[in-house]
Amino acid sequence: MSANLSPIDAAKYAAARKACDYVESGMKIGLGTGSTAAWLVRCLAEMVREDGLKITGVPTSSRTAEMAQAAGIPITTLDEVGRLDLTIDGADEADGNLTLIKGGGGALLQEKIVATASERMIVIADTTKRVETLGAFPLPIEVVRFGWKSTREAVAEILSAADVMDTKITLREADGQPYVTDEGHHILDLHLGRIGAPGRLAQSLLSLPGVVETGLFIDICDVLITGHGDGRVEIRDLDAGTVTEDRVTLGADDNIFRAL
Ligand SMILES: O=C[C@H](O)[C@H](O)[C@H](O)COP(=O)(O)O
């Protein structure tokens, strides 16, 4: 390999590079947020620069917007384009039905809006994200700042009756302060251990007025591309009902590694 990528970064890169096979000139693409999505932005930027790929990106966070802009990917807003061809994003966990936990990076609300405005959503991940049952990763929920403590109490009540293993709730912080999302909300992280019924839990949480959105993505993701550190990728396509394997060459793309 041309750069000293850790196996986890190589896996993320492999998944992101494979996802680029689904991108065609002229497409409007939702650009995800996080360290895996950052690889996608680098790969797409390279295709724009070197292959003349013509795409318009709709970023799912201010961080991704800055990165895409700096990398030379033309970006616009969701309101400008309305509907997208494809969104490619990372995830914190994905189960066999491609139900996801997202929001580890705090961008779940914009990510869900962009993904649901897309014809297709592809999730790119390393193998650590693939789980049998969701819930080992704390479930982020975005809550309105006003009265967030009351919302936390109401969430605790819901959890006490839910099919989960643990019920601890923490307010996400950044630099010792409550974290504020791009949309001006707080995030509560729900440490549940195991989520037995994701759909029911999401519905109950969304019934609370202070809860804006949950990090549970249900029936949104169409394709999961899981990358391995040696360049192997597994492509699980729900629509096609197929699981296929492929390999991404690591090290052939010097420019992308130099751009790190
Ligand atoms: O809010 C952040 C997003 O949902 C990310 O896509 C998710 O946290 C995965 O991030 P990473 O690729 O850095 O593990």
From TrEMBL:
Keyword Magnesium: no
Catalytic reaction annotation: aldehydo-D-ribose 5-phosphate = D-ribulose 5-phosphate
Chain positions recorded as substrate binding sites: T33, G34, S35, T36, D89, G90, A91, D92, K102, G103, G104, G105, K129
Gene3D superfamilies, A to Z: 3.30.70.260, 3.40.50.1360
Keyword entries, A-Z: Isomerase
EC numbers on record: 5.3.1.6
Coiled-coil region list: none
Pathway: Carbohydrate degradation; pentose phosphate pathway; D-ribose 5-phosphate from D-ribulose 5-phosphate (non-oxidative stage): step 1/1
UniProt subunit comment: Homodimer.
Family as reported in the entry's similarity comment: Belongs to the ribose 5-phosphate isomerase family.
Functional summary from the UniProt entry: Catalyzes the reversible conversion of ribose-5-phosphate to ribulose 5-phosphate.
Name the UniProt record assigns to this protein: Ribose-5-phosphate isomerase A
Provenance organism: Palleronia caenipelagi
